[in-house]
Structure formats: C-alpha cells, structure tokens
Model the fold of this input.
Amino acid sequence: MKEKLQKEYTSVFGAGSEAEENARLFFAPGRVNLIGEHIDYNGGYVLPAALSLGTYALTVPRHDNKVRLYSVNFPDKGVIEFTLDELVYKKEDDWANYPKGVLAVFAEKGYAGETGFDAVFYGNIPNGAGLSSSASIEVVTAFLWNELNEFKADPVTLVQWCQRAENEFIGVNCGIMDQFSIGLGKKDNAILLNCETLEYKYSPLKLGGHVLVIANTNKRRGLADSKYNERRSECEQALAGLQEKHSISALCELDAETFEQDKHLIKDDTVRKRAKHAIYENERTIHAAKLLKEGDLVGFGQLMNESHISLRDDYEVTGKELDSLVEAAWDEETVIGARMTGAGFGGCTVNLVHKDNLKEVLERIGEKYEKATGIQAEFYVAESGEGAHEITD
Ligand code: GLA
Done:
C-alpha cells in the first residue's frame, strides 16, 4: 500500500527524495455495527466491530503552514489546499472538510500545530454505505496529526474530537459509536461500548461456522440529507416528556419496564415509538453481548432480527431497499440473523450466515433483492480489523 500511495504522491505533488524519506502511512478502519442502532446519542450500549477495510493516508510533513490533500477516490476534486489559519468549512472542499474539521477541533482545543503536511488519502470502504467512511477519514486524520506533532493525546480524546468535528464542522449530530470503534477497534473483537460513560469491553467474535456478511443495498444516502438529525430531536422531545417524572439525562437510563409504566408522559405517538426503540434496543444490545459471550449465536441472531423490526416499525429508518434485502436474507435457513446497520435509509445490512453453501445463499438473496427493487446488491464477507494506527513495516 505504501508503494502504491508513494507513486500517487509523486504524480500528484511531484515529490523529491525528502518527501519519500519522510512519508508516513496511517490507517483507520471502517466499522460495522452488530447491534445497538440509533442509541449512541441516547446514552445506550452499542456493539460495533472495526473492519479490515478502511482509509489510508500517506503523509509528508511540510515546513510552512499549508495543508494539501488529495484523494485517490475523488480525483476530480484535485488537490485541496488550505493553511492552518483558515480552517473553515467550504462546500467546494468536499471530502476534505472532514480532515479540515478535525484540524480545526485540535486547534480549538489548544493543539494548533505550526507546520502543515501533504497527504494522499485512499479508502476501500464503499462510500455512503453506512460503514463509516467519513468517520474513518476523520480518525485517520486525528491519529496522523497527533503523531506528526507529538501531541500525545490519548485515543479516547482523539475520537471525541473527531465526533466534535462531525457535529460542529460538518453539521451532523452523530453519536460517538463510529469514531470510537474506528479508533479503538481490535481484530476479531466487537466492542461493547457504554456511550454514556465511554466504558468499554472487547467482545471476542467467536462465530463458529458462521461469518458476518455485509450486504450493500447500493442505495446511497448521506447523513446530512437523511432524517438523522430529525430522529435525534424526536428523542430529545421524548426525553423531555419522561423527565417530568424521572431525573434522567438520556433515554437509555430507563429500563423497558419503567418505560411501559410511564410512556404516557410522551404525548406524541411517533415520538413515543422512537423512545420505545431506543430503550428496547439498549436492552437487546446488553443481552446480545451476553449471548455472544456464551456462544449462543442463534439467540444473538434472533436479537439482530428484532433490532431490524424495531428500526423498521418504531424508528422508521429502513425503507424498501433495506427491508427487501433483510427479508430475502431471513428466507434462508443458514442466515441466523439479519438487520440494517448504521444510520439506515439505505446503505448496508449485516448478516450472520453459516459458511455452508454461502455462495448459493448469497446469490439467491441477491436475486430476490433485485426482483424487489431493480438494484443489484453487493456482498462482502466482513473481516474484522484493528483500530486506527500507523503502518510502519
Ligand atoms: C451513524 C452515526 C452514529 C450512530 C449510527 C446509528 O452511523 O454516525 O453515531 O448514531 O448512525 O446507530
């Protein structure tokens, strides 16, 4: 990978030998969330895993305060250039607003950095597919900037700064799940993360004869134009209703039983359904992590299915494509769990599938999906990977 990006670097920036010697390669993965959807911003538990797919950034420090960025994925955007004293959002800077936003948050926190860098980015996560390609760009930037300047910020702080960049600079009110799992993921493990306290535990992915298959609906969506922020504000309304009786600061502090007793405090039917999803999904996630630990994959898969139903009926973030792809998977005997993953409205599903006849099973699912939607799905057997790091060999 380093060689490939060095070549790109030379052709884009026309580098000399100094650049070659000083080039450093950083990586941040994408993530797939196994269960615990739309509850990170409600103070709940999530269970994501880092993927082996991700974003690479070949980085060469500069002696002035310029930053020049190029992405192999967006060659038509060319080199995007700015200085460290003009870290402002610009629509025309497109994808480069993600790294720029991260540098802006570092500066705001008192870690400005005096000299900039040139970088070539390359990502192999499908864009807009709900596998966190944007958070991956943010986190790789945070790790490289931290290293180049020897700021020594710890990884949890770095991922919080990335979330802040997404919230304040990009304008998407996302929770912490994506950045956290991308920064702190560990190969062959999912992370059970308490999004309220940021306490976390690794959950070994002991899948027996099963694999995790990510299926892309190939219906793209961007978070900014999705109803993501609307769902967040509906949850805030629900919380305000419940706070009339409970001194809670997040929906997931309530258990399902208490919610059932007091749900009348939420007057609006739609808002009440949103809260129901959040509270039950949190309990499902805790339960699912326990079943994974005990090796009860069938039970785990059942909870994945329930999660999808709740996201479809109560949270209403699925849509025809995600539902058709999940339903086609449910029809297969060897699929023991299937659900949408990520923000929804398009993007990917995650499926727990036995290895037997995998190819035929996926072909059948793909055919049914295409019949229902006219779109071809894509399937990847998910490989879990390490969290963000520098690649030194
Ligand atoms: C997006 C957000 C996350 C999370 C998920 C839904 O990926 O970035 O913070 O809310 O949606 O679970």
